[in-house]
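Narrative of activities, Objective 1.

The group set out to show that a structural description can be obtained from nothing but a protein's sequence at a throughput compatible with the screening campaign. Below is one input-output pair from the validation batch, recorded exactly as produced.
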Amino acid sequence: MAYDPYYELVPAPKEKPFDASRTALLIVDMQNMCAHPDGWMGRLAKAQGKPELLQERWDFVDEIQPRVRRLQDACRSSGIELIHVRVKYLTRDCRDGQRSFAEEQKAISSDARDDDFLEMVAPIGDEVIIDKTSAGTFNSTAIDQILRNLGIDRLLVTGIVTEGCVELTARDAADRGYYVTLVSDACASSTHIAHYDALQRMSDGGLIKVRTVDQLCEQIEAAKAQLKVA
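Output recorded for this entry:
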């Protein structure tokens, strides 16, 4: 298990009091391309004669979807912004993406449906959709400016994969001064081992907080009740 003894010498960062008006829920890459067996990634596995290779990934995504949706609904009822992030290129051959992404895409043709979000957790109304051409969301989008325009300084991060696009997004956000909470049971990876390893690494030192959907829903309800009293 990853562990840095340095953090025994310094206090863990304090968690800021919950404020729905300054909070956003990020849903990372819950799209057909990489979260559905019929999407680009699933087609790549099938084309190479390995359709079973990513089965744990598909099962894991199916497992977290109801929890992601439950958190989405709790946030919607509390006025918390939902921001849906996906990989979407400007060009058909993906040449505007980072080099490794573009090379991967050449292996098998894309499909317009790859850009579609999974139905259970898809955007509703005018919720924000951000298209990226990199793994981390902050590297190739205007998300930082968008969040600051919205007055957001706290992010609840969900999606796939925990040790990849989710981790890069969460770490970049924390590095820019956002209060970041990783939603442990609303993220998934190709393997559970990779997922749990990433959770431990990201939470080491406490800069990125880790909470479950149940814990966050309780926080959201408590914040709503406090507002009614006030």
